[in-house]
Structures are given as structure tokens and as C-alpha cells.
Design a protein that fits this description.
- The protein is globular, with a radius of gyration of 14 Å.
- By secondary structure, it is an alpha+beta fold.
- Strands 3-4-6-5 form a 4-stranded mixed beta sheet. It has a two-stranded antiparallel ribbon with strand order 1-2.
- It contains 4 helices and 6 strands, in the order ββαβααβαββ.
- Helices cover 22% and strands 35% of the residues.
- Strand 5 and strand 6 form a beta hairpin.
């Protein structure tokens, strides 16, 4: 097991009875130290990625900042954003800097949104 976001080091994951709430940012769960996995080293990446789905419970900004190599190969990216856990505006700005335009908001809910971006 490992965390995605940074390329190296160890992160803290807060675990909950309902695992869908596990997060590096919701600090009232059971604290676990987990190593980060470098996706670029772990995966054999194709030349092009048609669809990237990112639902990483508040680590969206870490992923966008640390994986421009993966984003540069991606045609369509779908992110679930958790604005109370990460800087939403910075995520959008960095995605634009990486050549993505928001195409649609797929779902909005009380604590976030799921959004589609395309090159």
C-alpha cells in the first residue's frame, strides 16, 4: 500500500470506519504513516492517456503539482475536488497551465465537485 500525491517520503493517512472518508487532511481519524508511491516509476505509462480519474480525498493539488509528466500525456482528466481540503483555485490554475480547459461540472455537492477537463 502507498499514498499518491508526492513522489517520495512518508505521509500521514487518517483512517475511518467508512474507508471512503480516509484522507491525509481529515485529522480526526486513526493516524497511519504510509510511504508515498512515485507513479511514474511504478507504472509503465503509455505515450497517451485517454482518461485520468483522480479521486484522492484532498490530495488533488499534490498530484497536480507533482505529476506534470502524467498530466502532459493525458487527453481527458476527471477530478473530484475537495475545496475544504485543498486549494481549489490553485488546482484549476495549474490544470490550465498544463493545457487543460474545464469542459463540464459532472456533479456538485455540499463539500466538493467532480469536474471534467480536456486538452
Amino acid at each position: 500500500p502507498g499514498m499518491i500525491g508526492s513522489r517520495n517520503g512518508t505521509g500521514i493517512m487518517y483512517e475511518f470506519k467508512h474507508h471512503g472518508l480516509n484522507s491525509a487532511f481529515r485529522k480526526n481519524g486513526l493516524q497511519k504513516f504510509i510511504p508515498f508511491i512515485d507513479l511514474t516509476k511504478k507504472l509503465v505509462l503509455p505515450e497517451k492517456i485517454d482518461l485520468l480519474k483522480c479521486d484522492i480525498e484532498g490530495s488533488e493539488l499534490n498530484f497536480i503539482e507533482n505529476y506534470p509528466d502524467i498530466l502532459s500525456k493525458t487527453r481527458i482528466a476527471v477530478f473530484e475536488f475537495h475545496p475544504e481540503l485543498c486549494d481549489y483555485k490553485k488546482c484549476i490554475a495549474l490544470l490550465a497551465k498544463n493545457g487543460f480547459a474545464r469542459k463540464k461540472i459532472l456533479q456538485r455537492y455540499e463539500h466538493g465537485s467532480v469536474e471534467e477537463f480536456q486538452r
